[in-house]
Amino acid sequence: MPRILPWTLLLLILLPVAAFAAELRKEFQALEQLYQQGKLSELSTRLTGSTAKNDEERALQTYLSAMLKKSQEDTLILLQQAIDRYPSTHYGQLSRLEKAKLHILERQIPEAEALLKKISSPDIPERFYWLAYCAQNRDDPAATIAQGENYLRADPRGKFVEDTHYQIAGAYQSQKKYFSAISTLEKLRASPGLPKNLQYFHYLLGLMHHLNSNCAEAFQNYKAGFELNRKSQLAFEIEDRLFELKGRYPSLVDLAFLYPYTALDLPEIIVETLPEEIPPQAALDPDSPARLAAKPSGGYFVQAGRFGSENNACTRTQEVRSLKVKANYFEDKGNRSVPWVVISGPYSSQSEAYTVRQILRGNSIDCFITRF
What we know:
The protein is of the alpha+beta class. It has helices at about 5-20, 25-35, 40-50, 55-70, 70-85, 90-105, 110-115, 125-135, 140-155, 160-175, 180-190, 200-210, 215-230, 235-250, 310-320, 350-360; strands spanning about 300-305, 330, 340-345, 370. Among the domains are: about 25-125, Serine Threonine Protein Phosphatase 5, Tetratricopeptide repeat, CATH 1.25.40; about 285-370, 2-Layer Sandwich (Alpha-Beta Plaits). It has 16 helices and four strands. It has a four-stranded antiparallel beta sheet.
């Protein structure tokens, strides 16, 4: 007994010290706050002069250094250092998350999932959202639902709550479990302050009712979504769905609200002179494919629409091409709700793009000039 007691006392003394050593001192808490507040210039200056005294601080130091790098390659190197050297620390685990997100950005889903599954910290519930995203990308609805529900339980007020409900509803849709999808969206509606993207919410809820043969509820939600912003790209998709609903239930769906008859208050008409001919750089090459393999870059473009369905984007592309003006469409993978973009270009100068814009507007095609 006399030999055991001193060791017991020693352990009781060392355990609080070890716990304290894992905490961040005020100097490093301040660095955390600067990063969270987006004060990167001040953070860079103070980070250079900071001296870490434990693994948690070293992990934070490495993590922040990675986040401040301008090249993805440099960021990945430092994130891997934090993962290898401080795997059990909060910022070592958070480095796994950030590296996984970079893999997702590059469509490297297996690599991202492998990293996400090694995160064990309960303080990083975001990993479940990205695991759901990876499962959705792999067309695995069961895993999408399971990981999405994990995220909602772990972080019921997290920043991805709304998107997670959409993920789960989409997974149920792919399984043709429309009632479950509707229930998921109604849970989102019951969440305080949500949904924030009301037009997309009503569109998706309308679609689930539509697929579940609930005509009245589908029409009510489509109409509510359409009237939130009649000129958005999503409104075009909703309009298509309304006509589908009308075709299925002709006597129950009244689409008069789409084209109301109102008194016209005509402003002074200013007639813009249209170009007499299409400039050579805008001439259509009939052999070029309508769909581009990737988002283009360099030069000026005239954007003629953004659509939720590829079919609508293809139709608009052919509409522009019928004017003998070059046009293509591509998938903007960063925008999952309305990913299909129709463009004409590239043009070497803004004046060239302006000429094309005049041609399209003169033919009732709404468009604008942009750069990628």
